[in-house]
Amino acid sequence: MKECVKINPERLWTRLNEVGHIGSDPRGGVSRFAWEPAYREAVVCLLRWIEEAGLTARIDTVGNVFARLEGAEPQAPAVLSGSHFDTVPQGGCFDGLAGVMGALEALTAIKESGLPHRRPLEMVAFINEEASQFLGGTFGSKAMCGMLPDDYAFHLRHRQSGQLLSDAMREYGMGVDPSRLAESKIDPQAYCAFLEMHIEQGRYLLDREKPFSIVSCVAGIKQFYITFLGKAAHAGGMAMADRHDALAAAAAVITAVESLARRCGPDTRGTVGYISVSPCEHNIIADSVTISVDFREADDEKWEALYTDLMEVTQRECEKRGLTWTVNSTCNLKPAHCAPELIQLLEEAAAGTGVEKDRMISFPAHDSMNMSRIMPMGMLFLRSSNDGLSHCPEEFTTREDMVLGTQVLTNALLAASNWAD
Ligand SMILES: [Zn+2]
Question: pTM for the whole thing?
């Protein structure tokens, strides 16, 4: 692999581990939640490294942290790279943080090299991607992309304490201001590309013995609840022909979720992971059942078809039994395709590694999905070395993979910073 600027592996690994353990949970793993004291402590640490590197730090009105390295043409649209800085409850040191620390190391090494480059380079640490306490997901990037209502922080509450997000933000400080949420929206014209390095969180790369892969697309996600309404009756007294059995219809639809996903192709996911049955008694026919459905698919047409096909099945199964039904959609993110020019950029940056031609789909959602709606987006996945585990204390990516991925990211950022308009 050609390295115009060599990163500092020791610095990268030491810092990742230092900041990664801030918010250590006595039950195991790391619980570093947005706007909490441990999060602030980690941000202070990050700000110190940004300053030490001679980069310019900025915190926006919701708490996203930026580091900027000016280029020869400060007015040219910048290249942005980063990931999220929060964790799930009892999470690991790599989810999100790998991409933040990778981007910081890239900018630090490029700055140290003194190599001239045209465009500014920016690192971003997104806040509240995991949304562990204030639900919603990818909050920081949504705010940057202008996808949240201005009064959002005045309605959302902490899922355990009930505290308003606006109050939590004020307590957090650091220049964060819930009444100025709209000011965190960035001008898409000020940026030419976004690159996110992230751990895979599955076994795909591990099983293929590949240290990393370039992502082709972040699969579209549809999540919704279907509620089936029938009539409760005696399990013995009511003849089969006279029933309005909500659970029997739900069972048929659950089976259809699996079969539709299987029929769609090997890269489709369909999951029912939640069911609620009323009255949930062994001798009463269920009158009300709610199930969750989660579909993930990278192809736009197939992604739409999964939903419409399931609605047809639901209608048919309910008609058969004389039921009514409703759907409540909770997430509807169409597939986010990585920009061809950024896939090519990453491929060139990884030339010589032997895996530069490999592509994979991301099935988990990422901040990159939001960013792709306003600027070209590219993604790099690192191998999850411990059985593919993530969102748990066992989450691990090796130092070698972390270093290799960060070097590829650095090569890509440097190349992109010299792009012509
Ligand atoms: Zn993540």
Answer: 0.91
